[in-house]
Structure formats: C-alpha cells, structure tokens
Amino acid sequence: MKVFNLKAMKVFNLKQWLLLFLCTHIIFPSLSMADDLSDELLVNINKFRQDMKLPVLTQNENAACLAKQIADQFKGQVCSNSTGEDTVPGTEPQFPNYPQFLENCHLNVSDTKDGVVMPDCVPGLDPQIAFQNYTHSQYIQNVNDTKFVSAGIASEDNWFVLVLATNTTGGNFQTYNRGTMHYINKLLSLLPILGALLLAA
User: Fold this and answer.
1) Among 39, 68, 92, 133, which residue carries the largest CB count within 10 Å?
2) How sure is the predictor about 42, in pLDDT bands with cuts at 50, 70 and 90?
3) Could you give the domains of the chain?
4) pTM of the entire structure?
C-alpha cells in the first residue's frame, strides 16, 4: 500500500500555482493590455460603422496575426508627417520580409491581396486618438467600405496596425484556417522557460 506525503503534495501544488500566477501576471500582461487596447479600438470602429448603417467588423485572428507581424516592424520608429495615416498614398513603407510575415501566419499573398493594412502612430497608444485618426484621415474610405467584413488589430510601441479583410477568397485571410497556430506556437516557445522554473522549484 502506497503512502502519499500529503504535505509534500500541497507544497508542490502551491509551487505550481505560484508559477502559473507568475506566468499569467508577469510574462503575459503586456499581451493582455495590448489585446484590451485593440479590442477597445475595434469596438469604437464598429460603433462608428453602425452609426453609418454599415455592418460591424468581426474579429479575424489571421488578420490580427499579420497586424502583429507588421506592428513589430514599426517598433522604435517615430511619428512624422510621412508615417501612419499621414502617409502619402503610394509611399507606404515596404517590407522586404513581408512574405515571411505571411508564412508566419500561414497565409498566402493570394488570400490577402484584397485586404488593406493601415498603420497609425499614436504616442501612448490611446485607442480614442487612434479611432479619430482612422475615421478622420485617408483611412476613412476603407473603414467605410462595405467590402470589408472583418478586422485584425495589433499594437507595438507607439503604433497601431489595423488590417481589414473581405469575405472573398482574395482577401478573407482564412484559406488555411490556421491563424490560431500563431498563438499556439508562441505558447509552445515558453515551455522551456516553464520547464526550467519547475525544475528550479
């Protein structure tokens, strides 16, 4: 008959819960805050579209994945009259590693060519200011366009990136239906850290 050391099990379980707490509140807080800002911006844009008698935009995880890839490229870039919503059409930043962004999100050019990517520089990442920028600039023509039915938003440093998608095969960002793998891969990348913490405990 096996005898279990309940006291040792309680201590071990306490350590496990402590590690989970630390992971949730130290490793992931910035991701959670960024998600909150993105959600608030999408809510405001959808209220605006409703006021204009337009259908609301649903959340598109694959578009959000691409938005995150692009937002990361703007980290450290200062706002100017040639960036974000002030960019002169046709002079938007070009990313030579854009194909890699698509691959990271399990997307093809053919599935995204009808979508639009709209970066916006907002010091302090205030979603209310970003909302004003998206609805009072050249971006308004896309925000008001009924062909766009879903959106993905990401933020980094002082930048929001809004990606709009259609419900057509050329812009729905959903061909492979594997957008969630982006987040799963991120979580998997943290497993070595968790393993080291458990061993240390």
Assistant:
1) 68
2) very high
3) 31-189 (3.40.33.10)
4) 0.70
